[in-house]
Amino acid sequence: MSDSLVIIPTYNEKENIEKMVRTVFGLPFPFHLLIVDDGSPDGTANIIRQLQEEFDGRLHLLERAGKLGLGTAYLDGFRWGLKKSADYAYFFEMDADFSHNPKDLLRLRDACHTGGGDVSVGSRYTSGGGVENWPFDRRFLSYGASVYVRAITWMPVKDPTAGFMCYTRPVLEAIDFDAVRFIGYAFQIEMKHTAWKLGYKIVEVPITFTDRVLGASKMHGSIVKEAIKGVLSLRFGS
Fold first, then answer.
1. 75-105 core/surface letters (b: 16 or more CB in 10 A; e: else)
2. Residue 167 pairs with which residues in a beta bridge?
3. In the chain, how many H helices and how many E strands?
4. Which of 153, 182, 199, 201 has its CA 20 to 30 A from that of 41?
5. What is the C-alpha separation between 166 and 199, in angstroms, rounded?
6. What is the C-alpha to C-alpha distance for residues 127 and 226, in angstroms, rounded to an integer?
7. Which residues pair with 91 in a beta bridge?
């Protein structure tokens, strides 16, 4: 068994998913992978089933009926992993589209395993981090969101909206998943905020975020609106 489970939500990621699986399994650490697929009509889940024959015991698939939201995909993945094996000590969130470099999984794990972190964040906005292939308006929106979150919540995380994460098992066991309110963009903020409020140490690891090359972005206006309203409720309702 591995002590590390990487959770990747998917919806129509057939262009990326096989390459991602092979890249993660080619790293010099025996990560396990859980793909949480929301009924992708492009056959993403079928690709995973075929790959499971090659990577038996390391590659897992959790299928859900339709698009239920990023947050619930991760929560279902956390529940699955916590129940599946007590050996899983580190749980990772990562995108399927290579906007997160799989090699950085090693650095996120080290930040918790030997660096003293309870949670590690792949951070675009800490020293050494950055973004590539983003237009100015998206850079402005993303960085502005991070400033807004920090100003409202006082949470000492420079990239509070980041979606490349490592949680240690005790953190996830301490969080009441049924009380998590947000399913979109604000989910990432809420999880970090909850861990911080519970007294866990959050460490930021600088990464370079690269915009996807293949497939379509899942970002839309309602997700941003949820985040804006959600941050206020976290500050005054936590």
1. bbbbebbbeeeeebbbbbbbbbbbbbbbebb
2. 91, 119
3. 8, 9
4. 182
5. 16
6. 28
7. 5, 167
Per the CB < 8 A criterion, the answer to whether 79 and 180 are in contact is no
- The owner of tokens 């010099």 is 28
The C-alpha atoms of residue 228 and residue 119 are separated, in whole angstroms, by: 23
Whether the per-residue pLDDT at 152 is higher than 80: the answer is yes
The reported pTM is 0.91
Of all residues in the chain, the percent with pLDDT exceeding 70 is 89
Cα separation of 185 and 225, whole Å?
Answer: 9
Smallest CA-to-CA distance from 117 within 44, 64, 170 is with 170
Q: Residues 81-134: pLDDT tens digits?
A: 999 999 999 999 999 999 999 999 999 999 999 999 999 999 999 999 999 988
